[in-house]
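Appendix B. Extra example for self-study. Work through it before the problem class; the solution is given directly after the inputs so you can check yourself.
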Amino acid sequence: MANASNFLSKNKSVVLYGIFLAILLFLLKWLELRFMIMDHAFEIYAGSIAIIFTALGIWLALKLARPKTILIEKKVFIEQSETFVLDEKELSKLNISKRELEVLQLMSEGLSNQEIALKLFVSLNTIKTHNARLFEKLEVKRRTQAIETAKRLSIIP
Amino acid sequence: MANASNFLSKNKSVVLYGIFLAILLFLLKWLELRFMIMDHAFEIYAGSIAIIFTALGIWLALKLARPKTILIEKKVFIEQSETFVLDEKELSKLNISKRELEVLQLMSEGLSNQEIALKLFVSLNTIKTHNARLFEKLEVKRRTQAIETAKRLSIIP
DNA sequence: TTAAAAATCACCCTAAAGTATGAGCGTCAA
DNA sequence: TTGACGCTCATACTTTAGGGTGATTTTTAA
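Solution. Structure tokens for the complete assembly:
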């Protein structure tokens, strides 16, 4: 859509130029006929043409050249929850298992160990074991630190 | 590599202009020949000069013009940490004091109550009292929930 | 100035979290 | 098949977190 109008506006210049050129040529022709200087001042004539057309070329080029600088800064505000992509590299680097990640996510939602255990149909002790391994792998001492670190590393949203 | 085709597509108008010019000149020539107005040699010469210098002008303009148009499309995914603005309305609505907010922030950084106490030069019991009030105001039961809720409400980054 | 809110701290108790160690079971690749 | 790994669970213990209550001292606002 923008291409079409763009092209038109550019072509308009071409058309204008063409008209201008025609007028100019006819003017020159008229001058020729009027003063009959063709044979005597040929160099002047040719020089004029050269200068005029050079200027025309420059004008045309500048006119048709693309706008100087278009800096489109597209700011995309998207919430983390929408944007979140799990950093699998980090995950495998830290060697965190699926189950551990699951526990970590529930932990970050504010669930207690008991609640996590109930949700995952396992015992409280199992969750504690997962936690211990998680803290070891994330090199932290508390669940709050684990959450903080995991979020920073894009392991959880 | 891509420059050549790029140049062509970008300067389609210029090429079109050249063709238009040629057609125009030939048209004029044809008119001349048809009506036998002038000597042919000069016309061809002048036309050549016009074409050459127009091309020169275009070339000059394009060559000397400022560096190619820079079109930057910058997608800025603004991170929470950069964007964070404290929701003061929520804060006053919940009636959370400055000190409590301070404790909440340190809490969210993964610090233990003891560490927070040391950092703020107060006793552990004081922190516990702050916590209790915080949990009450945020209507949560655990620090992890407090952090989760506070982040959701934009009370902490 | 005076009441209300904020900040401080203590004590006691319970609940939850975290540590350490050991072990059973299933899967999957070498 | 064997050994590494993941998941599970247990017991025992320590530490931290949280609840309840009461109290003192600043700060702040009416």
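Self-check: The beta strands of chain A are 69-76. If your reasoning did not lead you there, revisit section 3.
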